[in-house]
Specification:
Helix 12 runs antiparallel to helix 13. Helices cover 50% and strands 8% of the residues. The chain has 467 residues and is an alpha+beta fold. The chain is built from 18 helices and six strands.
Length: 467
């Protein structure tokens, strides 16, 4: 008896989709109207280009090369470089059995030349990533076992978040420079732009650049859902499928440029007013001759980068850890010279003051770990305060007199009856505020430690401003 179930035509349907995708891509690229026809298609000739990027004889003025220095940034190409290790491909099929129907015509580089480059340079020693623990560079074999492609490297337009022609290539063993070099230079092959700014997560060892740089990451959210399907495909089917999705991504970005530009202009206008107000307030507090000198230094450096970098710190701030070390050494030397018996206590005066600053911070701003176990951490902080008060008595008898006026204690099992954040520490500022005299030495220690903390914060602010 024959089955009434319909015949499975899934494989035929998938083959038909590929056959439809290829002429559709050629049609969208206008290859039917080109005298060279399909055979004359240039590398990357079937991609939806970023309309806002720089294109000769399309959106560049004739005199763009003669632009003054302050306008040259308008004619710079910003690239975002990254690798996606979800776009893997299992070791199935082969180029002979499953070739791409448009190899090198869209986003993926032409495969035969790319693989020949890989074979020729495979044994080249690659420097280890030293600035960060970048496992895809240092330990790539962990994720590449049993795969024909361990991921894909891409080059995007960083300003407009669009894939670039011939800016995608398979990775065989992690994020090797030989792969990323080839893919990047392939995407620049027909570019005559003279200024290229690259953003890359290991750019400190590979190249230089500065911009938002997150364009590739935005695109991954769109392409990752098909990774479960493409990893099972042969090499040609996978390339053609990903090319089709990247063209769709670029097309949708293009038609949405208008609404997105209006939204960003509105956001920029409000942000510009806010930043201008902050700049005017800052410049109002700085002498005019200093600002004029800064402008000259920056403009000269922008024209000639060999000059001293005005953004680089020329003075080394004394940070808190250095202050603590210096104070500890000074106190130790002074007490030895004065014949002070240090065996009766385990810490120096400067350390006692430093610990008071830490405890004060813990009272006002508990950490996440402290909040997660509030009762337990509160009891631990209480015991820390109690131990510190015992030490404080040695160096600040004035404080112990004030402590005696306040009942602060705990139970026999160590549970605090007074909340840790309510315990009065009787720090220098509190004693001075009540008119109680305190040794000038202690005041000097606290001043130097606060100065070190201020330098820490200034250094952090400078770092953020340089990003």
């Amino acid at each position: 008896m024959k089955s009434n179930f319909p015949q499975d035509r899934y494989d035929k349907f998938i083959r038909a989709i590929r056959q439809w995708q290829n002429p559709k891509m050629l049609k969208h690229a206008g290859r039917g109207h080109d005298p060279g026809g399909i055979e004359g298609t240039k590398p990357g000739g079937c991609t939806v280009l970023c309309p806002a990027c720089l294109h000769l004889q399309i959106n560049l003025p004739p005199e763009w090369r003669m632009a003054p220095e302050y306008k040259k940034f308008l004619y710079a190409l910003f690239l975002g470089i990254d690798a996606n290790f979800r776009l893997i491909r299992k070791n199935v099929s082969s180029d002979h059995r499953d070739p791409s129907l448009g190899g090198g015509w869209a986003f993926f580089v032409e495969d035969s030349a790319y693989k020949a480059h890989g074979v020729a340079n495979w044994k080249n020693t690659q420097p280890r990533s030293t600035c960060v623990s970048h496992d895809t560079v240092n330990k790539p074999d962990k994720e590449a076992r049993g795969l024909a492609a361990s991921g894909a490297g891409t080059v995007d337009c960083a300003r407009h978040d669009m894939k670039r022609p011939n800016g995608v290539g398979d990775l065989q063993l992690g994020e090797r420079y030989m792969n990323m070099d080839y893919i990047t230079l392939s995407s620049l092959r027909d570019t005559e732009i003279e200024i290229v700014v690259a953003s890359y997560d290991i750019v400190c060892q590979w190249s230089v650049g500065r911009t938002d740089g997150e364009a590739p990451e935005c695109g991954w959210a769109n392409i990752n859902p098909i990774a479960q399907s493409t990893k099972e495909m042969g090499p040609g089917a996978r390339h053609d499928t990903i090319n089709d999705h990247f063209n769709d991504w670029n097309w949708k970005k293009s038609i949405n440029f208008g609404p997105r530009m209006i939204r960003k202009l509105r956001e920029t206008a409000s942000s510009a007013r806010l930043h201008l107000s902050g700049l005017e307030e800052f410049e109002g507090a700085v002498p005019k001759d200093v600002i004029d000198r800064w402008h000259v230094e920056v403009e000269n450096w922008e024209r000639d980068p060999t000059l001293p970098n005005p953004y680089q710190l020329t003075t080394k701030a004394i940070l808190e850890r250095a202050v603590r070390l210096k104070l500890a050494k000074d106190v130790a030397e002074r007490e030895v010279m004065q014949g002070v018996d240090t065996t009766s206590h385990e810490i120096y005066t400067s350390v006692m003051i430093a610990n008071s600053l830490v405890i004060e911070e813990d009272q006002l701003h508990p950490t996440e770990n402290q909040l997660s176990g509030l009762l337990e951490q509160s009891n631990l902080l209480w015991r820390k305060i109690a131990a510190w008060i015992d030490t404080q008595t040695l160096f600040m008898p004035e404080a112990s007199q004030e402590q005696a006026k306040v009942v602060q204690g705990g139970t026999a099992d160590g549970t605090a009856t007074t909340k840790a954040y309510n315990i009065l520490l009787w720090l220098l500022s509190m004693l001075l505020g009540k008119g109680i005299k305190v040794a000038l030495e202690l005041q000097w220690y606290k001043w130097k430690l606060r100065e070190g903390q201020a330098h820490d914060l200034l250094e952090e602010i400078r770092h953020i401003l340089r990003l």
